[in-house]
Amino acid sequence: MTKTLSIIGVGAFGEFMLRHVTPYFHVHIHDEFRDLSSISETYNVTCCSLTEAAACDIVVIAVPVRAIESVVLKIKDHLRPGQLVMDVASVKCLPAQILTQHLPDHVEIIGLHPLFGPQSGKTGIHGQNIAVVSIRSTLHDSVSSFLRTQLGLNVIACTAEEHDEQMAYVQGLTHMIARVFQKMDMPTITQETKTFSLLRQMVNIVKDDSDALFKAIQTDNPFVDTTKKTFFDAVAHLQDELGKDRQ
User: Fold this and answer.
1) Which helix (H) or strand (E) holds 17?
2) What is the share, in percent, of the chain residues with pLDDT greater than 70?
3) What average pLDDT does range 132-141 have in this prediction?
4) How distant, in Å, are the alpha carbons of 13, 29, 47, 67, 131 from that of 50?
């Protein structure tokens, strides 16, 4: 029998998920702040209440990091033994702490971080990376197998700490550099090198990300401050070196 899967929070990524999960599940969607009627028709999925979403076999929490605790507190008393609850946040330590603290022991918990999004995955997600954190679950192997064989993803098993430590570089630095690049009063560039073209491509991939995602990457990852300090120290050191060369 086909399992039911709910997505709580149908923003840019929640909606992006629909085209990839609807072939495999009976999908229910809920969003407190968005009219989902047109999305329901487009993807042939069911709009539902938060309580109904909490009753599905698999519950995917796709809200901003700072909203996860609120959702968890509202659904925790409606969950039954054996259900699987997953989050898809861009950081993993904080969601893992929230989920284990508030969710009942009889539910399975896995953290996911798809290392792609609507822009980088617009032509397909086959071969893209996804981090899988087994927070409190016996279903890790089954979930990983589905992601690998059905969706064609490259599954990276890790702890929440390992994930966030690496994302402090992978996302913390790249998203910060992209924001700085966007804020610069740059003239029209017609003489691009390959390197500059790649930099512009990086900026274009993340330029439409929400402020909530950017702030989560920069403030909710416990390792980002150290990474940013190392980066800015290196910049300052380089400035000093260049200054010496001009003397």
Assistant:
1) helix 12-21
2) 99
3) 96
4) 18, 9, 10, 14, 26
